[in-house]
Structure formats: C-alpha cells, structure tokens
Amino acid sequence: MFGRKITLFFLVFSLLAGQACRGGGSMDAPAGSKSQPQFKPGFNLFSPQQDIQMGQQSAEQIMRETPMLDDPQIGGYISQLGAKLSAKAAGERFPYSFRVVATKEINAFALPGGFLFVNAGTIAAARNEGELAGVMAHEIAHAALRHGTNQATKQRLAQLGLGVLGTIASSGEAGDTGGAVAAIGGLGANMLFLKFGRTAEKQADIEGARIIAEAGYDPRDMANFFKTLQAEGGQRVPEMLSDHPDPGNRIQYILAEIPKLPVSSNPTHSSPEFEQVKARLTGRAPQMSAGSQLRRIGPSDPTDLELKNRPPRPAGQFKAFQAEDNSFAIQVPANWDALPGGGGNYIFAPKGAYGKMPGQSEDSMMVTHGIFVGVLNAQGDLQSATRAFIQRQLETNADFQPVGQIRQTKLANQPALAAAVAGPSAINGVAELDITYTTVTADGRMFYIITISPEDETEAYKAAFQQILNSLRLAR
Hints:
single chain, 3-stranded mixed β-sheet, 15 helices, 15 strands, elongated
C-alpha cells in the first residue's frame, strides 16, 4: 500500500510537470517593462491558447446574459486605459479586451485569456484615474497569472480525480477547445464563481501595483480605493470585497511594496478624460446635499472673468473664540461660522464655503475657504508628528501634492512648523492651497491650524489668515 502511494505521487508529478512545461509559458517582463514580476503562474493543465478560447466562450455568454453599457465614449476610454495597463503585464501576450457592465455595483472581473469587465459603478466610485487603474491592473494580473484556469484545474481535479488529466491534455494537443471546455464541465459564465484564494488575491494586488507603477500611476491610489471600499462596507459588504476578499493587511502590504517599484516622482493621478467619463456616468459634477450651504465656486460662464458664487471675503472685524476645554483661544473674521469638527477640533468658515456631501456623517464637513483648528495626541517630536499629519492629509486627498519643504516658523510666540499641500478641490476641482501650522501645547500634544483657500484667492485671504495666526493663545 505504501509503495502504491509513492507510485501515484510520481505519476501525478510527471503529468503536471510535463503539462506545465508544454503550456505554461514564460513570465519574463514584456518589452519596456522596468521590473520583473514576483510570481509565476501556478499549476495549470490548460495551454495559454485554451485560456483565450475558453475565456472568449465565457465572455460571449456573459455579454448575452448581462446588460453591457453601450456608450462609445466610456467604452473607448476604458479600452484605452486597459491597453495602457495591459502593455505592462508580464507573461503570455493575451489579446486583452475590456467591456463595461451596466450596473451600479462596484466590481470588476477577469476571465482567462484577458477578457476583462468593469462595472459602471466602479468608474463612478473611483475618485481619480489612479484608483480606477488600480482596480483594472488587479484584474489584468489575475489574467496574466492565469488564476482562472489554475482554479478551474484544481476544481476539476478535486471533482474527477486523475481521469481528467488525459482528457484535457489530449484536447490541447488536438487544438480541440470544445473538448477542453467539456473536460472542465463547460463552465462558461460559471467561471465567475471560481473564487480566488488568499494567495491569488495577494499576488494580483502586488502584481497590479507593479503594473500601475510602470504605467506611470501611484500605487497609493490602488490602496486608497480599497480603503474607500472598506469605509463603505457597513452592514452590506460591497460586491467587489465579496468577490475579492482581503488576503490580510491588503492596504499595508500594497504600501510596503512601493519602495520596490519604479514609481514616478510625478505620477499621474487623474486626467480630463476620466473626469469627463465619470461626469457622463453620474450625470453631474460632484454636488453637496440639499441642506448644504456650500455652493460650487467659480465663474458660471468660463468667459466671465468675474468670480461668481464665491463666499463673502473675510470681514475686517474679528470675533473671539475659546475652545471648550480652554486649550486655546483665537480670533476669526466676524462673518465666519464656528462649526464643531468632532473630538475637540473646530472649523471656521464663511457661509457658502462649507457643507456635507450626501451620505456623510454630521461631523464630516467639506470646506473650500476657512480654517481647521484642533489639538491632537501625537507620538514623537514635532517634526515627525507633523510629517505623519501631512501624510494622512495626502492619503485622504489623493490628488494633492506637497509644496516645498516643512519650514520653521513661530506660533503663539513659540517654535512651530509650517507645511503646504495643493491640489484640485474634491468639491469642485478648483485648485486649492492648504497650509498646516503646528506647535506643541503645554501638556505635550500637537496643536494645528490648517488654512484653506483657492490658489487664485490666496492674496485675498492672506491678511485674514495672518491675523488669525497672530491672535492665537495657548493654555499654559
């Protein structure tokens, strides 16, 4: 009995090794690629050509049974973005194709051979092109690493045993795609239900991060999209997280991979084409809730040089404000409202410059002009705490970039630091400049003020911001 098990082991090993060598293909990086992939395709009884033929059969069935988005502009954009990303995929040169599914669910999926589908809801949910590219690169990696037929192989071996080996092998040699499909049970659209395991998901994450880095994007955007999905989870898990379960610390290991990747010093985060397609899908630019006081700023007519719908400029008169815990006192323009930011933090802004996005909690406020003020528990010295604070701002606002270096200054007559970041406002796309000032309180916490204004109104708000900073008094 023992000898029989040994014989069976070597029989299986020989069959698997022979088939893998015949049809596995190499995983060298394609021309123009800057780094080698970290993973090779797993054991697979199918040839790459069978991946293509089976994937095409399944794709045709899905397109017959699933509503596809018939919009040349959106479809063309997704195909162009997909071509840009798939050019960086390693492995077999699959004829990648991309289609948009007409559903608001956030999801995407890949069939063997490079047939990819992106739900319209995914495009609408992405905050920038980098996030969308991250989702698509993850799916491209699944196809490039042949996870679909690898999973089908394991399933059929578990169901039919070694008897399926010769059937698939012989059909591959004869080029009989129908025989290969029949050998795995004619999966068709049911291939979507072959869920990938933790290992495959992690490989697709890491390989996807490599793909978008080489395509000129920032892998942090990929991590940010998964972070957004997690935040939206609540009681109902988003479809994409259900189909692509977190292998464990997904965001952390994507970020940990970045130092190993050829990330551009000036990566692409978004594009006018993405913004146009997203607006086309949603039917509108980002809007505030009906009860919000915030209005879209900027000229209603691009040829009109007057700044219409802007909030009122800071008043010349100032009013005093003291924090409930007496940690600080400050003066702000008399026409600014004081809004609780939660956790002992405050927002000061004029009417028309603040509001909540639909579905956000009461303590989540969007601001286009004004200041954020508060006190935080922070670790390390002021320099490291400030860097960490700025980094959290950049992670929250993926399109923002640092402006210059952190510099030394004075705040409340004591040493302080100042750091600037800039980027398009998440509310209306207007270029915005935010400057963060930090110092240490008497009890060792970090006090901060963030001044916020559109770049084209910096001079109009400069004097008000300076008077606010000069008025600050910290508890002793």
